[in-house]
Amino acid sequence: MATATAGEAPKKSSKERMKEYLKGWVPYRYKRYIFFVIATIVGLGLPFVTINGNKFFLLNFDHKQIHLFFTRFDMQELYMMPFLLIFGFLFIFFLTTLGGRVWCGWACPQTIFRVIYRDLIQTKLLGVRKSIKNKQKEPKDQMGKRIIGGLIWVVLAFIAAADFMWYFVPPEDFFKYIKTPSEHPVLIGAILITAGFLIYDVIKLKEDFCIYVCPYARVQSVMYDEETIQTIYDTERGGHIYSEDQEHKLVHNLKELKAKEPDAECTFCDSCVRVCPTHIDIKRGTQLECINCLECADACTEVMGALGKPSLITWTSYSAIKEHRKPKFLRFRTIAYAVALILALAGLFWMGSKKEYMLLNINKTTQLYKIKDHGKRITNSYRFLVQNTQTEPHRYYFEVVDHPDIKIERPKEPFKINPRSKVMKVVVLSTTKDLVKDTTKDTPIPITIRAYAVDAKDKIVVERKTTFVFPRYDILQKKREEKE
């Protein structure tokens, strides 16, 4: 054992150097775990958060409604959906351009589920896997523990499937429906299909879903540029292990690497390879299979930390590595996506502000008009479908906004509609004035109908355009002459 001579400081062991160098360092893995916990709590809890009877997000096919940002919209109000879809796609493009497949490694349910099953249940809880740092070797023995792990995941898969359904069927209805499964076969079938897929996906398909099934991996590469933040192996420091086209190895061991590049710092420990959940070698460069989980960066940080050096694998951009600087987050592409996102979000909120607190559809009957009282009164009939979208009952009535000579003849009094209910009303408009004296044709007169809640006229009011058909004046005159 080497000892320090007089006046010399004792040499530090690799563990001591690593501890000193990595003081205050927090592995990306732990940061991801924190993010996973937050995402899980939000995902499970959000369906239960209700403000004024509305959810943050709910696509309710049962009641033909969508809840967005605690505002409820009926199917007739889905004119805002294009803005929502545009915003979603632009957000994915922006996120990918900025940080590669950061969604895959940090927020995707598939990744979270695999970490729960592989790292928590199999490794930490049951010890089926010997080390969390080796994801290449699949467990083959301990069948009993593997079955227990599978059963635990089956339970969690059904919870996850139920949580998924809560964004389509609110929890208060969900728990009521599952008490009578025979009356709700579609819901039960959806739960079984979703849970079955999650069981197969997490236990059998595993990361092959990310590599071969997920379409995001196929489209992400076209969104990358030289400034996109990715998990990158620094070839300038570590050495060139693979050719530029990634097709073959330039060196196969540390001896070959040192002979070719004496200053290369890679130790050929392959810790980065063993820990990779998608079974790739990050030293080959950018690959579609990489999900930016940064577990290889953690592994390399520990190895290089023992040598008192920074990690050869970092979360940065190719340009930043080549030019020895920090990545550029603000550039034309990200700014353009950010502006487009802001515009889409503004459009979404603007359309949301157009929400109507009642719904009204107006259809004319097949009979254009009636001439009554020997030509003194002209009537038009309509069918009004009125829907109360509120959570409390209201009394409703109508008025003609822009033609004082056209009056509401029927109904004569306001009528009540219960919460979230709709009523069909036959509405008759009439006039005793000669609105048009055209002897060649019937004349449709544009009018505006205003419908409102009598007890909340300032808030619950909508307007619709329709027409009032006035008969040919010569026909009207004949009716009047018949009386005489």
Walk me through the structure.
- By secondary structure, the chain is α+β, with helices and mostly antiparallel strands.
- It has 3 domains: 19-218, no CATH class; 223-332, no CATH class; 358-483, Immunoglobulins (Immunoglobulin-like, Sandwich).
- Helix content is 40%, strand content 18%.
- It contains 17 helices and 14 strands.
- It has helices at 14-21, 28-45, 81-99, 102-106, 109-125, 143-165, 171-177, 185-205, 208-213, 216-220, 235-238, 254-260, 271-274, 295-306, 318-323, 332-353, 473-483; strands spanning 57-60, 65-68, 71-74, 230-233, 313-316, 358-364, 370-372, 377-388, 394-400, 407-410, 415-417, 422-431, 443-453, 461-470.
- Strands 6, 7, 8, 10 and 12 form a 5-stranded antiparallel β-sheet that branches. A 4-stranded antiparallel β-sheet has the order 11-9-13-14, with no helix packed on it. A 3-stranded antiparallel β-sheet has the order 1-2-3, with no helix packed on it.
- Helix 1 crosses helix 14 (295-306) and helix 3 (81-99) packs antiparallel against helix 16.
- It is elongated, with a radius of gyration of 34 Å.
- It starts with 13 loop residues before the first helix and ends with a helix.
